[in-house]
């Protein structure tokens, strides 16, 4: 028995109608009642989306433009005749966007469905977005966000995207993108610290600081643990979560420099991150109350000197590792990776990924080198934990990092 073949565009029309209904349901709940109610509701949005789909499907030149002008005119008329004391423009803009989603649904049903769902979620999150913008986000954090946006949209595209032999084949643009990522994680950690409170903020700060330096994070939280022994469990949890950042940043570096290297590293890195995350979160069960001193004046969460120091370290270590591999072969490569990782694991991992991208390093050697780098850096972090935080703090940190490393090696061997 032969199946029924749908005409071309029928699926797109169905997606357009579904997207219009989804958006319309959300707007209907916001429409209100009585004389102050909005003009557009469930049926208006469904019809607008279906109109866009039909305008794109029907083979009449210029029909999509005519339909767009009609919907825009009706939206403007509705806004002009609104009796609400604060009419806003959200509903009118959403109506016009729904029409465009209907047009897109016929061209690409998957993209049209995604746009429709995204618009519905955006409209439904009004209160949460308003609270985030007015309560959770401070003036300083807004300034930091604008600065990050300017760096991402203006400065980053101006950096040339070509490899430099002096940096072991690393492109300057991915290196700059990594600096931008570190700055963004610093800003996110500041927001999390205030939104989650002292207890959750310590863990969030540990995770975010790990993207800059897990070793420095272990030392910093260890100093606090020595001053406040009753909080050693919680502070150790934050230090352990910086180990999660080590694995995640290794993946991010690989994605930026050599996507095939990231594919080889994916499972071991996720296993290592999962082990550190599980042990770190267990500290919440035994952690006592956290009492923080009163907050001082607002300060910027961005620490550009730290991020730039990471980039400079990446470049210098890339030069060291690349020259060691060229002059002394695999033995020199592994020795230079271990020595560099005693200070920071990210720099030798970046060098290995760059060599892999240039075709000078096989995948097996890359994976082995990454695990050696994290292993050497784990030894450093355990020693720093003992010196900075004392025995109880070091035992918790060392156990978690050892479990994380063992899981990563096991998955790599398997």
UniProtKB/TrEMBL annotation:
- Domain MgtC/SapB/SrpB/YhiD N-terminal: where? 13-131
Query: What is this protein's name?
Result: Putative transmembrane protein
| Residue ranges of the TM segments | 6-25, 45-76, 96-124, 145-163, 175-193, 200-221, 233-257, 264-287, 307-324, 336-359, 365-386, 393-412
Identify the residues that the record assigns to the DUF4010 domain, covering every copy.
181-389
Species of origin reads: Methylibium petroleiphilum (strain ATCC BAA-1232 / LMG 22953 / PM1)
A family per Pfam: MgtC
Q: Does the keyword Acetylation apply?
A: no
This protein's UniProt keywords: Membrane, Transmembrane, Transmembrane helix
Query: Keyword Transit peptide, does the record have it?
Result: no
